[in-house]
Amino acid sequence: MHSAIFEKKPMCNFKTLCYAPDGYLIVCNECRHFQLAFQTTLLTMTARDLQVFHTLVKENREYNPPETHTGRKNIYIPTPLEGHGIILNGKELEALYQLLETAEVNFKAECLLNLFKTAGS
Q1: How far is CA 61 from CA 32, 37, 116, in A?
Q2: Residue 121 Cα distances to 4, 107, 116, 117, angstroms
Q3: Neighbours of 115 (CB within 10 A)
Q4: How far apart are CA 112 and CA 76, in angstroms?
Q5: Most Cβ neighbours (<10 Å): which of 2, 16, 98, 107?
Q6: How many CA atoms lie within 13 A of 81 on its CB side?
Q7: How high is the pLDDT of residue 114?
Q8: Three-state SS for 34?
Q9: Average pLDDT of the segment spanning 93-111
């Protein structure tokens, strides 16, 4: 069986944007793809895919506020891979949201620092 999934290069030159108890988000310094690991799921995404995924997580968090969490896995988040998604409970949704928010702040801070490095060269 031949599949494009097996042809992807590993992210060997990466920067960790966030490392949390339930997962991490890294960015490859060469191809600028992102890799999100959360619990038993590992996704490699473009910046655009990550932005869309992050927006879906934010929207689901708004629709499922923490005070309504029942512990049941009934929150579906689609992934960039067609036909695949993640099913979470409220606590897991909050953990994923916090991971993505922290990573976003760290990535933006890194981009700003790089602008200053470039301007100072």
Answers
A1: 27, 19, 35
A2: 40, 21, 9, 6
A3: 10
A4: 34
A5: 107
A6: 10
A7: 79
A8: strand
A9: 93
